[in-house]
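Write out the 3D structure for:
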Amino acid sequence: MRRIKTGDEVVVIGGRDKGRRGRVVRIVDEERVVVEGINVVKKHQKANPMRSVAGGILEIEAPIHVSNVMLFNPATNKPDRVGFRTLDDGRKVRYFKSNKEVVDL
């Protein structure tokens, strides 16, 4: 089970976009995630008429390391650390460390 999942609202805690919030669009690998509107870079795209790809300068969201994001806690309006807990029915869930509230049910 991962601390950060697709669709989670996260806060960037390091780098040029520090303090900004966004949703996780996809998980690239074990260590990198793509966050909506965060780490936007310019990519110079060469035109390819065979694939009907237009050329130009595109703005894309680059992956960011998972250590630079924290899960956003709506109860406290702050980023929060995440722990794991097993419920009485045997399910493993994530919870916020600050207020012991379960993230997803």
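The mean pLDDT is 94.
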